[in-house]
Amino acid sequence: MMKATLILLLFCSLAHADITGLVVAVIDGDTIKVLDADQTEHRVRLSGIDAPERGQPYNKASRKHLASLVAGKEVFVETTKQDIYGREVGKVWVQPSDCPSCGKTLDVNYAQVLAGMAWWYRYYAEEESPEDHGRYESAEDEARARGWGLWADPNPINPYDWRKIPRYEHGNEGR
After folding, report:
1. Domains and CATH numbers, the chain
2. In angstroms, rounded to a whole number, what is the distance separating the alpha carbons of residues 138 and 80?
């Protein structure tokens, strides 16, 4: 029994190993592609956040902001799981552009929420550490209070709710 448990733990840790690599594509405001040293491409979904969907207001602005943080840069991804689409889910760290002597100290997921380019993903809050839960919730509260990014919209629609709207009801926005 103990041997089976050890094998299961080993498999789980291998299945969700952390990733270090170069960001080769920014898919949208919460998904990137990372190429590791073995030339393996990883599709990474940023954990704890939910960015506007295609056709939703601020979708393009969110993607552009994420690209300004990570495109063409080396990142470290603390993976937590794989989602139903086969993407690695995790927290992305990058060296801040204004600090060439710093390491990878910028939490990109947090930066997206604080800039008003993504929501804190409440529906998965139980999967976050208490620290991240508090930080991301506070970042969203601050962005909302200051009217940053998508919070400039008088009635922003959470992507979680947007995905439930039948496709024909979506307008063709996408600032």
Report:
1. 14-169 (2.40.50.90)
2. 22
